[in-house]
Amino acid sequence: MLLFLTVQTTYLKSLTSEQSLAYLLHLRGYLRTLDGNFDEAIADHEKASTFVHKKAISLNFKGDVHVARAGALEQIKPTESVEQEELALELYRKAVVEDVFFTPSYLNRARLFGSRGHFDSAVYECTRALKVNPGYPRALYMRACFYYLSGQYTESLRDFLLLQAMGEDSPYWSEATGYIEKINLLLP
Which domain holds residue 35? Predict the structure, then answer.
């Protein structure tokens, strides 16, 4: 914990006062999301967006709040949960328009599409992230998983082999190895 605080303090010292304020507002918004104070979290992210030139970050955070709210509402009001997910998708779309190089927005869209069973759309979003950042292991792993879930085992195998080729130090190496074994049993 002390190391985390030291790193955060060092990071904050490298920022301008406006960047520091935006960072702290995003952090408070994130904590409020965890506490279930969604409206306050969105307000914090909106305030932060006035201080940063990259609006994609704020849009992405607001999308995350709506996803969290959707998860909280799912048990109580499933219809409102879907509305929150739709709003999150729109915010992630706006984040991509704002900054096409901000890959988390593509992957957040992919995650939402995948959770709805729209695997082709999820694969498409992961592919878009990989066009921006070709060596992004998380995007490659997610795309491989969505291919697998949609029954496109050859494409899934190709991506898992690419992940495995990144070496044992790759964050998804062991998962890729496990899937490769499963897929090899499924393919003729």
Answer: 17-91
